[in-house]
Amino acid sequence: MNLTQFRFDTDGDGIATLTWDMPGRSMNVITERVMDELEQVIRHVTSEASIKGCVIISGKDSFSGGADLGMLEASSHRYVETARTKGEKIARQEFFDGTRRLSLLYRELEVSGKPWVAAINGVCLGGAFELALACHYRIASDNPKTRVGLPEIKVGLFPGAGGTQRVIRLMPTGDALQMLFKGEQLRANAAKGMGLLHEVAPLAELHDKARAWILAGNKGVAPWDDPKFKPPSGRVYSPAGMMVWPAANAIYRRETQDNYPAAKAILQAAFEGLQLPMDLALRVESRWFAHILGTKEARAMIRSLFVSMGELNKGARRPKSVAPTKISKVGIIGAGFMGASIAYVAALNGIDVALIDQTLEGAERGKAHSHKLMSDQIAKGRAKTAERDALLAHIFPSDDYAALSDCDLVIEAVFEDRNVKAQAIAKAQAAMRADAIFASNTSTLPISSLAKNFARPVDFLGIHFFSPVERMMLVEVIQGKETGERALATALDFVRLLRKTPIVVNDSRGFYANRCVLNYVREGHLMLMEGVPPAMVENVARMAGMPVGPLSLNDEVALDLAWKILQATKADLGAAAADPAQERLLDALVNTHGRLGRKNGKGFYDYPEKGAKRLWAGLADLQSVKLNPDLLDIAEMKQRFLVTQALEAARTVEEGVITDPREADVGSILGFGFAPYSGGTLSYIDGMGVSEFVLLCDHLAKKYGERFKPCGLLLDMAAAKETFYGRFAKAKEAA
């Protein structure tokens, strides 16, 4: 055998060990070369009489992250090219055969007649876990970092190498569908309890226990290949089955609004596959997988949530002329909710933090926020007391700005007021090192104007975190007019240390994410004032693919903040910059009724101490008209919610705030949850076609106002039949 991605050895007892250890990579992934070599090994083990069985183990810290999705993306491009050169029929057959190869390979292993054991340490996800599921015994290490799972749904796909068919035969149907729909990573003991693993053992014993299972004479026969096998939940068409499948279909529609073809394919493949022998079931799964891989939703999600996000995480926008920066200690000014949360994620990743507040008591409260977050994790079994103590040891609360003297980076997270920020900047720069970088966590104030308060504007920029910081994966890095490359590189290195995804944007009021999301919230306000029932506003937004309705979202960020932003916008840009209907609504809620949002228990919703939140009944009194919900165009309402955000994203490109479509798309999904199935704001436009999008904007502008008027860039692109990815990819190549 000619192996480069694996090592293969056979011991004196006839037990083979296949060690997966791809050269030049920190993580094993499934590639064409890996499949070629795995095929050689399977056939060798099958045909060699002296080999009793085989253990698959990793030579790295983790088993494997799964398939290289770039390989799948390339297969879609090959399909288009083959269809052009050889015809649609040949292209479809080649595409199906190519996408099915891994499934057939795993089935060949499963029916080889020899026992195979997967010995798992670290992460084992996607196609790698499907390999483990095809093995006859699965043993995982008790390493706290060990995780198994099938997360394909998160990038618009579903397990297509036997995952749906094996999971649905290992677990009760309802549990299996839930696992496949959520795509979560499971800890070893949880996976064992669910029947996905057979054994959990110390890492040092993993290989020996795997060998011992084979030496004990266990056979290489999967449960479903036994003629007496019965699925855990019985037959599909049975009283028990009919308790599951109608409910599963209803849950699918409730959770996805039919926006995610891959989720529907999971349901179909599982439902159809359970009624067939395994080989036919796998063929059904493969047909659904090929279909889904060819959908625009899968292509867009793979591009944005795998390819583009991976490139940004690896520093695609980092200035290459700047050497790697060392960030050992950061200073955070302001120990309120945002500042304390930034301190938490920094300390969680081993960075020392000087946490400054007006009083030592305030700074200590900020540190206590980290204590609470870690205690919550301990209570859920996700962390240990020693880990909490280690994290807290990185946070140094103080009321003295002198504590910033040895910080590499200082971030202000004080109240969103120019004067307050100016005072914090002045005190900080008097204490900082001459080479330290200063960043503002402002969410709306232009960075260039704040930088005027700093003696070294070249070392000043914005690092905008989203709330809650510990859960939100996006960080906006904002360049002011004078921000230098070293400051940008330092900020990006810091974000990478936090294991978050950065996007780089140029200075503007609201930057990128807030500009788009404020449009979303405004559209909800205006629908309400038009007379649309409040519940319908919220539900239609979720139907469009948004994670929460605009009224609920506004409650979370605070209604008085929305009022202040509106007034600040009027002061800076003139009265015409504010919509009168939106202003009347916020004025009534905030100033007349004192409804500030979740923070004071009353906003668009009431928040009782016990029980679920509910829409405030008084909203009806704020509507001068009430429209009949049965006569409203739901499809058009959904378009309004998505178009207003995508149009604002196009404006940020026209203004040079966003210069890379990858950042617009990734930022929109991670930052404010823009309909992930679309691939992001600009992919939404590209997927529709710029000309069609312009026509839709014109229609909405005539009906609802100038805010929907397409910008000049869109008109130019429509005339030239361009796409954002086509136009700006060419621009980057030319540069």
CATH class of the largest domain: Alpha Beta
**Residues in helices, as a percent range:** 40-55%
**Ends: how far apart?**
46 Å
Shape: globular
Could you give the order of strands across the largest sheet? Answer: 12-11-10-13-14-15-16-17
Overall pLDDT confidence: 94
Please name the CATH architecture of the largest domain.
Answer: Alpha-Beta Complex
* Count of distinct structural domains: 3
Can you tell me the CATH topology of the largest domain? Answer: 2-enoyl-CoA Hydratase, Chain A, domain 1
Quickly describe the structure:
This protein has 735 residues and is an alpha/beta fold. The protein is globular.
Detailed description of the structure:
The chain has 3 domains: 6-294, 2-enoyl-CoA Hydratase, Chain A, domain 1; 329-509, 3-Layer(aba) Sandwich (Rossmann fold); 514-656 and 660-730, N-(1-d-carboxylethyl)-l-norvaline Dehydrogenase, domain 2 (Orthogonal Bundle). The protein has 29 helices and 19 strands. α26 crosses α27 (690-704). 47% of the residues are buried.
